[in-house]
């Protein structure tokens, strides 16, 4: 039997904007069917920017240029639903090279460009919260009822 971690994991999410749209993928595996910005877990010794560049390259084949931290999310809805607690650092860029491709077909059904004001559902909590922070110009938004 596996033990529950004592501390949340640190996730990364990257909002990649092209024109008026952002890149979203439909997940497979954990949280399968949910849409999300690209991302994953921060590795030991990585900066947020290094992790974002690595994750996006692994998932989409895109080469990010100068991603910047814009928000942090505490994903308590996901914790209550799945028992896994992640705190996610959200980065943003409009600068990248290449076209998105499905580099990890076991983790993503496909990538597409979407209006950030009309996110497809179901939507991964960290992605939804990160996009909301971008649109509202906030770094962090408390969940209603959060201490």
Automatic annotation (TrEMBL):
Domain named Nudix hydrolase: residues: 5-137
> Where does this protein come from, organism-wise?
Archangium violaceum Cb vi76
Mind telling me what this protein is named? ADP-ribose pyrophosphatase
Keywords carried by this UniProt record = Hydrolase
State the superkingdom: Bacteria
Name of a matching Pfam family: NUDIX
Q: Can you tell me which family this protein belongs to?
A: Belongs to the Nudix hydrolase family.
Q: Which GO terms describe its biological process?
A: dGTP catabolic process
Tell me which GO cellular component terms the UniProt record holds. cytosol
Q: Which GO terms describe its molecular function?
A: 8-oxo-7,8-dihydrodeoxyguanosine triphosphate pyrophosphatase activity
Q: Keyword Transcription: yes or no? A: no
């Amino acid at each position: 039997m596996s033990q529950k971690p004592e501390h949340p994991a640190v996730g990364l999410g990257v909002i990649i904007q092209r024109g008026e749209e952002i890149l979203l993928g439909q997940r497979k595996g954990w949280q399968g069917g949910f849409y999300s910005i690209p991302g994953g877990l921060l590795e030991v010794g990585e900066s947020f920017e290094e992790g974002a560049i690595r994750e996006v390259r692994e998932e989409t084949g895109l080469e990010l240029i100068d991603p910047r931290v814009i928000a942090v999310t505490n994903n308590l809805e996901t914790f209550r639903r799945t028992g896994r607690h992640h705190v996610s650092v959200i980065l943003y860029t409009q600068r990248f090279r290449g076209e998105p491709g499905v580099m990890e077909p076991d983790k993503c059904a496909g990538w597409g460009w979407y209006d950030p004001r009309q996110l497809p559902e179901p939507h991964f909590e960290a992605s939804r919260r990160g996009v909301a922070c971008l649109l509202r110009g906030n770094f962090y938004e408390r969940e209603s009822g959060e201490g």
